[in-house]
Amino acid sequence: MPIKIPDSLPATAVLESENIFVMTEFRAMHQDIRPLNVLILNLMPTKIVTETQLLRKLSNTPLQVKVEFLQTASYTPQHVDSNHMETFYTTFDQVKDRWFDGMIITGAPLDNVAYEDVDYWEELCTIMEWSKEHVHCTMHVCWGAYAGLYYHYGIQKCDLDKKLSGVYENQVKKASSPLFRGFDDVFFAPHSRAMGVSEEDVLAVPQLELIASSEEAGVTIVKSRDSSHFFVTCHLEYDRNTLALEYERDVQRGLNPEVPVNYFPDDDPSKTPVVNWRSAGQLMFSNWLNYYVYQTTPYDLKGTVL
Which of 142, 229, 234, 246 is catalytic? Predict the structure, then answer.
């Protein structure tokens, strides 16, 4: 089945060029099936790139998925055309009385900013509190994962001595988890951050399970025991060139960044990176949609306390 998104969304042409089945709203309305309603709170400055990356991962599934994009009202994005935001994004006031099967809260380049100093922190807390009753299952990614662990469970972040950037080996800690259906025992994933959380702090919270970690990169994936929240610190949605573009950006800013680990062949930025995380990323998002959203969400969401 296809993913259902607005016809004129920039990601549509990209996905169709990759032979991904994108359904028009007209055709979707004439199918006798309820799509999964997924809300994406996109906090990344690269809105269109992030939209395309996430939609690509959510599309390769037999489920019909209707995706909507959410922006914060308390902060105006600086790196995307306002017409794009007005056309394709909604605000919390417009969705607060609705219910969703799934939600994704993305990362944001806020590693060195205290949570309470983030311009939209109060609004984000309101949205995360709302999600407890209005979203069946929420996936928090990178900075969104750390913000979620802090808000829901009081787990403090720790600043790293230097930015963690590269493709790292991660170990599956709970092979029986449906999230890892089809995974190898070890999987590779891009990490790009200057913060982390202590494994001991995660394990000290009875409501949480550490289900994947990395010897080099630390905590990778955490879930709540009731499966209503997933916290993913890596970027399995990243494209081949995402880390390269981040590296080039930091070079141009004069930050003298280290070459991303295990990414460029021979650690040579002039060489094309080899992707070794694509299948794990596809499996993770598909398994999340299937086992933690579709299989357990109520058919009639309206007015249902999840």
Answer: 142
Q: Is the pLDDT of residue 172 over 80?
A: yes
Nearest to 237 by CA among 196, 280, 268, 181: 280
Whether 137 sits among the annotated catalytic residues: the reply is no
Nearest one of 39, 32, 24 to 293, comparing CA atoms: 39
Q: Is 84 a catalytic residue?
A: no
Contact yes or no for 268/244 (Cβ under 8 A): no
| 60-78 residues labelled b (16+ CB within 10 A) or e (exposed) | ebebbbbbbbbbbeeeebe
Report whether 192 belongs to an annotated binding site: yes
Report whether 131 belongs to an annotated binding site: no
Residue of 51, 68, 237, 246 with catalytic role: 237
Our separate counts of H helices and E strands in the chain read 10, 12
What are the residue ranges spanned by the domains of the chain?
A: 3-294
Structure confidence by residue, pLDDT tens digits, 7-61: 667 766 776 676 555 555 544 444 456 789 999 999 999 999 999 999 999 988 8
For this structure, is 234 an active site residue? no
Which CATH homologous superfamily contains domain 3-294? Class I glutamine amidotransferase (GATase) domain (3.40.50.880)
- The answer to pTM > 0.85 is yes
Annotated binding-site residue? 163? yes
Sign of CA dihedral 220, 224, 225, 226: negative
Q: Rounded to whole angstroms, how far apart are CA atoms 174 and 185?
A: 9
Max Cα distance, the chain (Å):
56
- Catalytic residue (one of 134, 136, 152, 235): 235
pLDDT of residue 25: 55
- State the Cα–Cα distance between residues 99 and 45, nearest whole angstrom: 26
User: Distance between CA 196 and CA 157 in Å, rounded?
Assistant: 6
Q: What is the pLDDT of residues 107-130, one digit of tens each?
A: 999 999 999 999 999 999 999 999
